Amino acid sequence: MMHTDNIVPYDIRYCLVQVSDNRQNAPDEYEASDFDGIRWMVIDGEKHLATLNLVTGNNVYGEKLVKHKKDEYRIWDPYRSKLAGALKKGLRNLPISNGTKVLYLGASTGTTVSHISDMIGFKGIVFAVEPAVRVARELIENVASKRRNVVPIVEDARKPQSYFSVFGKVDVVYCDIAQSDQTNIAIGNCHAYLKPEGAILIIIKTRSIDVTMDPKAVIAQEAKRLEKNGFLIDQIINLDPFDKDHGMIYAIYHPD
């Protein structure tokens, strides 16, 4: 069944934390979430997502570091990460937790990859595919060199047979690439690496697919494409205002 609604975040309890931007500390509110390794932090009256920092003292893209008891969290910016945007817009199920094996297409410099790295911990692994050599260099220097659960793959996502670093099947394929055939690219990677009943989280960049079509129609079209290729749609989320004309589709893989 296809769901397009946005759900208000969870009923959660509050307590005090110390919030640090590496220059000053300030007391603020802390909320548990329904997902492992993720918390809600209220800073200056605004609710923010945060992930438990896998590499204490290290931030990746200038994000705030938040101390709570003996733990350190990284504030997760939904304007920099579409997965954070989807969570703020009401993503009901997150198939990423401690020990998850993820294939990430379109890793870029590693903003979202780093937060996934936090969530999966050292028992998990994220294979981060990025074709641009200069961008991949930043991914390696800023993320993979500090996080042993991130395996960078400098390769075109159209060539999944060339990912020599990937071993076995993965639990999740996350796709964030700007190509007109982005959904077909994601499907090809799922056929190659996603285990049965694994999950796909795909960002639909509607203007990259067809600039003349209504964005909602493009997202619906790509959802149907997934359904024709063995996927059961669980939820569709409009990512406005974090990313205009973008949507996320969460689906479960049921190959023949």
Structure at a glance:
By secondary structure, the protein is of the alpha/beta class.
Report what the structure shows:
The chain is of the alpha/beta class. The protein is 23% helix and 34% strand. The strands form two sheets. Strands 9-8-7-10-11-13-12 form a seven-stranded mixed sheet. Strands 1-2-3-4-6-5 form a six-stranded antiparallel β-barrel. Strand 2 and strand 3 form a beta hairpin. It is globular. The two termini are 19 Å apart. 44% of the residues are buried. Mean pLDDT is 87; it is low at 1-27.
* Number of separate domains: 2
Largest sheet: 7 strands, mixed
Q: Which class of the largest domain in CATH terms?
A: Alpha Beta
The CATH architecture assignment of the largest domain turns out to be 3-Layer(aba) Sandwich
Spatially, the strands of the biggest sheet line up as 9-8-7-10-11-13-12
Estimate what percentage of residues fall within beta strands: 25-35%
Q: Per the principal axes of the C-alpha atoms, what is the gross shape? A: globular
Poorly predicted runs: 1-27
Q: Could you give the distance between the termini?
A: 19 Å
Structural class: alpha/beta
Rg calculated over all Cα atoms: 18 Å
List the helices and strands and how they pair.
Blueprint: E1 14-20, E2 25-32, E3 38-43, E4 46-52, E5 65-68, E6 71-76, H1 82-88, E7 101-105, H2 111-120, E8 125-129, H3 133-144, E9 150-153, E10 170-175, H4 182-193, E11 194-205, H5 206-209, H6 215-227, E12 231-238, E13 246-253
Parallel strand pairs: 7-8, 7-10, 8-9, 10-11
Antiparallel strand pairs: 1-2, 1-5, 2-3, 3-4, 4-6, 5-6, 11-13, 12-13
